[in-house]
Write a structure and sequence with these properties.
about 45% helix; alpha+beta; 4 helices; two-stranded antiparallel ribbon
Length: about 100
Protein backbone atom coordinates (compact mmCIF):
# COMPACT_ATOMS: atom_id res chain seq x y z
CA UNK A 1 0.00 0.00 0.00
CA UNK A 2 1.15 3.50 -0.79
CA UNK A 3 0.12 6.65 1.05
CA UNK A 4 -1.16 9.20 -1.42
CA UNK A 5 0.04 12.73 -0.77
CA UNK A 6 -2.84 15.16 -0.44
CA UNK A 7 -3.19 18.88 -0.35
CA UNK A 8 -2.99 21.05 2.76
CA UNK A 9 -6.65 20.68 3.83
CA UNK A 10 -5.80 18.03 6.41
CA UNK A 11 -2.99 20.10 7.93
CA UNK A 12 -5.19 23.20 8.05
CA UNK A 13 -7.98 21.19 9.70
CA UNK A 14 -5.61 19.80 12.35
CA UNK A 15 -4.25 23.27 13.12
CA UNK A 16 -7.78 24.69 13.26
CA UNK A 17 -8.94 22.06 15.73
CA UNK A 18 -5.81 22.50 17.85
CA UNK A 19 -6.49 26.23 18.01
CA UNK A 20 -10.12 25.62 18.97
CA UNK A 21 -8.95 23.21 21.68
CA UNK A 22 -6.74 25.93 23.16
CA UNK A 23 -9.61 28.44 23.19
CA UNK A 24 -12.44 26.37 24.63
CA UNK A 25 -13.82 29.31 26.63
CA UNK A 26 -15.23 31.19 23.63
CA UNK A 27 -16.12 30.55 19.98
CA UNK A 28 -13.55 31.70 17.44
CA UNK A 29 -14.25 33.59 14.23
CA UNK A 30 -12.85 32.35 10.91
CA UNK A 31 -10.72 35.49 10.56
CA UNK A 32 -9.03 34.79 13.90
CA UNK A 33 -8.43 31.14 13.02
CA UNK A 34 -7.08 32.07 9.56
CA UNK A 35 -4.59 34.50 11.09
CA UNK A 36 -3.05 31.76 13.23
CA UNK A 37 -3.22 29.07 10.56
CA UNK A 38 -1.69 31.44 7.99
CA UNK A 39 -4.40 31.11 5.37
CA UNK A 40 -7.32 33.05 3.96
CA UNK A 41 -10.52 33.17 6.07
CA UNK A 42 -12.44 31.76 3.09
CA UNK A 43 -10.40 28.55 3.36
CA UNK A 44 -11.46 28.24 6.99
CA UNK A 45 -15.10 29.04 6.16
CA UNK A 46 -15.14 26.25 3.58
CA UNK A 47 -13.49 23.78 5.95
CA UNK A 48 -15.66 24.38 9.03
CA UNK A 49 -18.90 22.94 7.56
CA UNK A 50 -17.05 19.72 6.73
CA UNK A 51 -15.75 19.51 10.29
CA UNK A 52 -19.25 20.26 11.59
CA UNK A 53 -20.76 17.52 9.41
CA UNK A 54 -18.29 15.11 11.03
CA UNK A 55 -19.47 16.31 14.49
CA UNK A 56 -16.06 17.72 15.35
CA UNK A 57 -17.07 21.38 15.64
CA UNK A 58 -20.19 23.45 16.05
CA UNK A 59 -20.53 26.79 14.34
CA UNK A 60 -22.84 29.65 15.16
CA UNK A 61 -23.28 32.38 12.53
CA UNK A 62 -23.59 36.08 13.23
CA UNK A 63 -21.71 38.89 14.91
CA UNK A 64 -21.48 37.07 18.24
CA UNK A 65 -21.01 33.64 16.65
CA UNK A 66 -17.98 31.55 15.85
CA UNK A 67 -16.80 27.97 16.03
CA UNK A 68 -15.90 25.70 18.92
CA UNK A 69 -15.11 22.04 19.42
CA UNK A 70 -18.08 19.74 19.73
CA UNK A 71 -15.99 16.99 21.36
CA UNK A 72 -13.25 17.04 23.94
CA UNK A 73 -9.85 17.22 22.21
CA UNK A 74 -8.75 13.83 23.52
CA UNK A 75 -11.80 12.23 21.85
CA UNK A 76 -10.81 13.42 18.36
CA UNK A 77 -8.54 11.22 16.26
CA UNK A 78 -6.41 12.26 13.31
CA UNK A 79 -8.26 9.65 11.26
CA UNK A 80 -11.61 11.38 11.99
CA UNK A 81 -10.16 14.69 10.86
CA UNK A 82 -8.74 13.14 7.71
CA UNK A 83 -12.05 11.50 6.82
CA UNK A 84 -13.89 14.78 7.37
CA UNK A 85 -11.82 16.88 4.97
CA UNK A 86 -10.14 14.61 2.42
CA UNK A 87 -12.10 13.05 -0.41
CA UNK A 88 -9.36 10.86 -1.90
CA UNK A 89 -8.59 7.44 -0.52
CA UNK A 90 -5.82 7.46 2.06
CA UNK A 91 -4.33 4.23 0.75
CA UNK A 92 -4.25 2.51 -2.59
CA UNK A 93 -2.93 -0.82 -3.77
CA UNK A 94 0.00 -0.57 -6.14
CA UNK A 95 -0.32 -2.77 -9.25
Amino acid sequence: MIFMAGNSRFAIAVHTLALLANHEDSPLKSEFIACFVKTNPVVIRRLLPELAKANLVETQPGASGGSRLKKRPEEISLWEIYQAVETDAAFTVHR
